[in-house]
Amino acid sequence: MNTDDKPSSNEPKTQQERVYMQLREAILRGKFEPGHSVTLRGIAEMLGVSLMPVRESLRRLTTERALQLLNNRRITVPMMTPEKLEELYQARVSLESYAASRAIQNIDPEALSYLYEVNEKHTQSILEDNVEDYIYLNFEFHRELYRYGRCEVVMPLIESLWLQIAPFMRMVHSQYLTESRFNEAEDKHKAMLTAIEKNNPAQLKYLIHDDILDGVRRLQAAMGWPISS
Amino acid sequence: MNTDDKPSSNEPKTQQERVYMQLREAILRGKFEPGHSVTLRGIAEMLGVSLMPVRESLRRLTTERALQLLNNRRITVPMMTPEKLEELYQARVSLESYAASRAIQNIDPEALSYLYEVNEKHTQSILEDNVEDYIYLNFEFHRELYRYGRCEVVMPLIESLWLQIAPFMRMVHSQYLTESRFNEAEDKHKAMLTAIEKNNPAQLKYLIHDDILDGVRRLQAAMGWPISS
DNA sequence: ATTACGGCATTGTGATCACATGTTGTGCTG
DNA sequence: CAGCACAACATGTGATCACAATGCCGTAAT
């Protein structure tokens, strides 16, 4: 009798969903190298499942532009170009600023403390030189923040953008290390939490813009590209 | 020898691609009714193909949020809510303004004349009460405009948003008829083309915002929802 | 008349095979 | 040694079957 209109449950029921989540997390951890090709049978063997769940998962990921389906029927991790990076930057700023401005009014003390906790782990990952944790926890912090904006339309778009830049976050990280060691005073995430506590949406949006731009600048530097305005 | 790195060719080679394009166009024509369920075998029988291409196509469309996969394993056309509409509005304005501002500098006279042509057909569809053409040609005009922005990242996001509102454009259209007949002076698309000719990005962005907002308002009215600011 | 139960039909998912296409390696030829 | 033809392999796509889960509907008990 339970018609159960909810779009989907949280715990994956199908293998396809599990495979998708695993691949997704792997991408968001920077485990996928740009330009490398991904094969159905390779993934299937790696995860110990048959081809079908992998097929559907990769179809999802190509739709989200996390992977690319060349017309030689080969699936690869897309490369980056200066033009794509510029677009990713603009789109992230627009959508994430919006998500943040919606979230700021719904963040209660409990949520805030959890954000502090995530950021603490993020900081730890930097000190420990754990690159994959660094990449993943950065996204996790942003996701946890925007979560309270309840953006059921915008959030999937943002996550699609994340999947597209994630493979290049290793370069951002390495650039991080070469140019300057982690500085507590420059903890942009912590500044965001302060802006939230002071209920200052404008400041929060500025910090998000700055945070995203910072990553873009590092990636441009690591790629040897000219730094945009 | 041709490695052919281009992401995909224009002409669909696989059945899955053909099925996807057909379903996509059907959605962008308003042929899919909100709340209705879509079945694999139903589509397969309708299009005369087997289950596999349909499976992959529907997986793509659910990823783009054009369709919804309930946890009863049923695929349906999503309903609209005031909150979703608000998000769709904000996201469309942000992304389409950006796409337009990028496009305006690349539109040559030839492109402009084609845009006039598309808009002419769009106007025709209104006068002929051809609802599906009206819905589709509206998107087609915007797509053709943004095309010259060469937004390979942002464009897929915009199209995802279009797929989500398309099923509700019939209501926008009917509201169009009830409140006021088509007025040549109110042809927003023509005003956009004028803004392009005068090379006025700010005006173009304003007109796009206004055009999108106009549709949102009509939908809100048709749904009996309060009109947002 | 209403509700609960049970059997049947429908539906998405998973598995397996066949196949067209593209890739790679190898040996022949100039 | 370079260039090319051809075979062997790898890979995504399509088709078909099996199956568990879900929905649907008629029947019967209260």
Layout of SSEs?
The structure is a homodimer of 229-residue chains.
Chain A: H1 15-28, E1 37-38, H2 40-47, H3 51-63, E2 68-69, E3 75-76, H4 82-103, H5 109-127, H6 131-146, H7 154-165, H8 169-179, H9 188-197, H10 201-223
Antiparallel strand pairs in A: 1-3, 2-3
Helix pairs in contact in A: 1-3, 2-3, 4-7, 4-10, 5-6, 5-9, 8-10, 9-10
Chain A binds a DNA duplex (30 and 30 nucleotides) through residues 3, 14-16, 39-41, 49-53, 55-56, 69, 72-75.
What does it look like?
The structure is a homodimer. Chain A is mainly α and about 230 residues long. Chain A folds into 2 domains: about 15-75, Winged helix-like DNA-binding domain superfamily/Winged helix DNA-binding domain (Arc Repressor Mutant, subunit A), CATH 1.10.10.10; about 80-225, GntR ligand-binding domain-like (Four Helix Bundle (Hemerythrin (Met), subunit A)). In chain A, about 65% of the residues lie in helices and about 5% in strands. Chain A contains 10 helices and 3 strands; from the N terminus they run αβααββααααααα. A 3-stranded antiparallel beta sheet of chain A has the order 1-3-2. The longest helix of chain A is centred in the last third of the chain and has 23 residues, at about 200-225. Chain A is globular and about 50 Å long. Chain A starts with 14 loop residues before the first helix and ends in a 6-residue tail after the last helix. Residues about 1-5 of chain A have low confidence and may be disordered. The interface of A and B includes residues 56, 90 and 160 of A. Chain A binds a DNA duplex (30 and 30 nucleotides) through helix 3.
